[in-house]
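As the work plan foresaw, the team has encoded backbone shapes as discrete tokens. One protein thus recorded appears below exactly as we store it.

:::
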Amino acid sequence: MPITTAPPVKRERRWSVVALCVVLAVVAGLGAAAAVSSASDRTKVLAVARDVPAGQALTEADLTVAEVSADAALSPVPGSQKSRIVGKRPAVDLRKGGLLTTSQLTAGSGLGDDRQQVGVQVKRGQAPAGTLMSGDKVLAVLTPAAGDSGSGSSSKSGGPPPTISASVVSVSRPDATGTVVVNLAVETTDGPTLATRAAAGRIALVREPRSS
């Protein structure tokens, strides 16, 4: 019987396998390094969890922590400052999903924290459509009730109706009928009167010129 033996493995084939293993190891190492570097470049920042109108104090539920890639062009509030941000008021409307920046915040409402605030429900035709915003100066015109002969300068003399000077703190989104709720800051002497007339639906708003 002839004796057969396996042909010897060529040295060249062994070296090619070793070289391939080395290349794969290097690629895997580079991939792991890139992943670690990418993870280290991400930072935790504050994002808006739900829509918040301008002037409304922020709560825990309004904020969430998100991880984003570090970018010198962005300046979001660090996630570690969440407890400090709660209670502050945005100067602009905040939209769900957006990153929170310090430029969007004010120390208070900035619109009369030392004054009374009254919510006024305004229907279409009782205020300039879509133009009121936080910080606007307005006149709350006290309209007479049906059959009311009026009071003060708006009575028989035919003078202008009584008004109350106010600042817009925030404006809600319009409902299906176009009605909005406008939060107004007024002097303490005017708060009860404005609230009474607002509850009766006897308020119309006139926006003052923004240049004044």
